[in-house]
Design brief:
four-stranded mixed sheet; five-stranded mixed sheet; alpha/beta; rod-shaped; about 300 residues; 11 helices
Length: about 300
């Protein structure tokens, strides 16, 4: 039996006659009759009683129709899903990202993506760079968003999205807030609120100050830039931070100033070496579409 035979049987059972079934299927009555005859031969039992060239469905036909209808509905669902996947409307994306991007950049990207692709499911995990790379290696996520500071790993594909430059966060009434650019030597004696030891950005910041030749006074260490920005708002200290932090702070309480010497890195998409799916490529397009807004806010250059 084939799909056309199933459809002809369903049309006959739905409309009650060969004539109406032919009209519903937009084919000739003889064609419907042939399809029904072939279908009856294929199923192996009597579906119709015939009197004066009129077909009447048997009790077995009514019983079998429910099964045929389920099969047709399942096939239509297959067609629907195939069209949805072809149009990037169906699928799932697992994302791992460093917390600062989960708290800022990805919020608008995901919201806009879901408006365009409501049936695509998304899961997102905030984790450090090392954790993100582990998740990609173990196939626990499909896409990663993070920084590229001193990262050299041929096992991953890295697609740069934009370049960021570290800033100095400080309360608006801080003595150095009047400067547009802050040389690190001006920061001697300040209390610092910084990321925990081990993060790539903290490692780079520590190196810059080691080259400058004077130790910093670390008042508080925290895991996320969100926590650091909140502590700067409360005047616990200043921070050398990711420029995305400016999207988290109360601008009436905290200002961000350019730091010299500069510390720069790329914000990038991390993937395994496999080809991206159609829906993942679509998500990448939304990531890129958000970049002009990030440039306008000073988060990337």
């Amino acid at each position: 039996m084939n799909l056309r035979e199933l459809e002809s049987f369903n049309a006959f059972m739905t409309y009650g006659s060969v004539t109406k079934a032919a009209q519903a299927m937009n084919i000739s009555q003889p064609m419907v009759s042939r399809l029904l005859n072939n279908f009856e031969k294929n199923v192996g039992f009597e579906l119709f009683s015939r009197k004066r060239n009129q077909l009447t469905a048997t009790r077995e036909a009514h019983q079998f129709h429910a099964t045929v209808l389920r099969s047709l509905n399942a096939f239509r669902e297959v067609e629907t899903q195939a069209r949805a996947i072809a149009n990037d409307q169906l699928g799932a994306i697992r994302i791992a990202a460093q917390p600062i991007y989960v708290d800022t950049y990805l919020l608008d990207v995901i919201a806009k993506f879901k408006q365009a692709h409501p049936k695509v499911s998304i899961s997102i995990t905030d984790t450090g760079l090392e954790g993100m790379l582990d998740m990609i290696s173990n196939r626990q996520c499909d896409l990663g968003i993070g920084i590229t500071l001193d990262l050299q790993d041929p096992d991953f594909l890295v697609t740069p999205l934009g370049q960021s430059r570290a800033v100095c966060l400080m309360p608006v009434d801080h003595r150095l807030a009047k400067f547009e650019t802050i040389d690190i030597d001006l920061l001697r004696g300040e209390d610092f609120v910084e990321l925990a030891i081990g993060s790539p950005l903290r490692t780079k910041i520590d190196y810059i100050f080691q080259v400058a030749g004077w130790p910093r006074k670390i008042a508080v260490e925290a895991r996320t830039i969100r926590t650091i920005s909140r502590l700067v708002e409360r005047k616990v200290g200043i921070s050398v931070s990711d420029p995305f932090a400016a999207l988290l702070v109360d601008t009436g309480k905290v200002v961000a100033r350019t730091l010299t010497p500069t510390i720069e890195w790329d914000v990038a998409l991390f993937t395994s070496s496999r080809e991206l799916s159609a829906v993942e490529k679509s998500f990448l397009a939304f990531l890129r579409a958000e970049l002009p807004h990030l440039r306008a806010s000073g988060c990337i250059l």
